[in-house]
Amino acid sequence: MTLPKKIFIIIGVLLFIFCAVVCSWYVYISVYGDEKLISNTVNVGELTSDSGDKNYFIEVDYNSNANKNGLEKLDIKLNYFTDENTQHFYSQGLQYVANSPDEKINWIDFETYSSYLAGIVTDYIESAGETLNLDQFINFVNDNNALTSYTLATTGWWIFGDEYKANYYKPFVNPETTSRYNYQSYDNYESTETSNPITDDSYFTLSLGETNELVYVRFKGDNYVTSKDFENNGSFNADDFLGDSNKIGQSGTTNYYNYSNVDYLAFLIYKQVQTLPAGTNGTYVLEFGDNMFKYNLFDENGTEIKDEDSTKVINRIKSYYTIKINISADGARNASDSIFGVLHGSANYSLDGSTSGAGDYFQGKTVVFVDVYDFNLVHVEGEYYALKLKEEFLEEYLPYKNKIYLSVDIDPTILEDAGYKFAGFTTDSGLDNFSILKINQPKGVR
Hints:
Blueprint: H1 3-32, E1 36-44, E2 46-48, E3 54-56, E4 58-63, E5 73-81, E6 89-98, E7 107-108, H2 110-117, H3 123-128, H4 134-143, E8 147-155, E9 162-169, E10 172-173, E11 178-186, E12 192-193, E13 203-208, E14 213-219, H5 238-241, E15 247-251, E16 254-258, H6 262-273, E17 281-288, E18 293-297, E19 304-305, E20 308-310, E21 313-328, E22 366-370, E23 375-381, E24 384-389, H7 391-397, E25 404-409, H8 412-417, E26 421-425, E27 435-440
Parallel strand pairs: 1-21, 4-21, 9-16, 22-25, 24-26, 25-27
Antiparallel strand pairs: 2-3, 4-5, 5-6, 6-11, 7-10, 8-9, 11-12, 13-14, 14-18, 15-16, 17-21, 18-19, 20-21, 23-24
């Protein structure tokens, strides 16, 4: 046997032994190894814009009405950068306020839902002033889109099989006792009832910790629990595939999880402020579990920072947010008692002779987001078209031109997909009637 051939055989044997050892180690760890938890930590503290303004992402103002002299009220204000330039802050927020001095903010949370399923009398029956039977209550939950369901696994065969489901429940306030309002503002101007409400799909531009790395932050929503590959047989164990780290309940083959949106965030904050004394005025760090937020890096691909599950290693994102909290034992009596300057949708609200209604829709300087669908196409030549604001847009917003900024974002792919090329804006586009925050348009405009 020649020397090169011997060397080749020896190398082959060594590679075989190496592969066998690695595979054996992997199997051993999978079966006998200890679970290892790795946490990615996300810290969000005070935010500073390039102009030097400072804000906390979350501000909370709570009137408990322990003194029985007004309305229980919870204001939650979310402050974040308008874009990656970090020049300005944009704010959105929610207000939860009791409908009368005798009522409290009343959440229909998972505990209420499960109590109804179990036939236990809840506070909801008393506060609503009526008795709902189970079917009526289920319809009430469905009408508020509080429950979504996903089938994650099916086992067995035909009638002998089972479906394993993940149901997501999102808390909401009982409209019989509590009102919910959306507000917005720009660079700390007077808040207005919003034309750009927070939704389940909203995202916020923040900087993280000491690194000031920019990220998009979004609510995790639902359908974040997944099933792993498995054999289609009756030995399937739901908990093997529907991890229980975020589970809030179980009924047969259905696991329940939190639907993470802004109302769930508000519910968590509401529970937290109940534990703090009246007179609290300062900053506190709240930890949110791995099912509250998801994060996307500011790169060209918008890469998501994900949780990871691998053999015996669980990687979870823990979020720590420094939030500003103010708590009063008094009830809210006037619009000025709110950080939005608005109560029950009115800047003129007073418990002593309330002025109802929202009044002027735009009460302060705010931002209106404009895209290609707000424009008409004006032919220039060939495939090139210019944009001009639609008449209905001008009719809606011109009366408030001194109250708003326009943020214009033109996506060229929308035009290109329709066979048009962007030639810019017409000389009478209507944009000169407004104050412009920024215009994003395709490069190399003809």
